[in-house]
Specification:
1 helix, single chain, mainly alpha
Length: about 60
């Protein structure tokens, strides 16, 4: 076997392993994102930023001075 044939065989094995690893990584990332989206990315709906329009309503809009 010539060195170029050996290099080609090794390159094909390496490429196949890279594709397999890449697919596995993408599947794990998608699975984690779907799981996070299912649980609303960890957001607690009972607390946090609760906008209250009465507290922050603009009182001086349309007033001519």
């Amino acid at each position: 076997m010539t060195p170029s044939e050996a290099a080609e065989i090794e390159a094909k094995k390496t490429y196949a392993a890279f594709i397999k690893y890449s697919k596995t990584a993408v599947y794990w990332i998608l699975a984690i994102l779907i799981l996070l989206a299912f649980f609303d990315f960890g957001v607690d709906n009972k607390t946090g930023s609760q906008y209250n329009g009465k507290v922050y309503s603009p009182m001086n809009m349309g007033v001519n001075k």
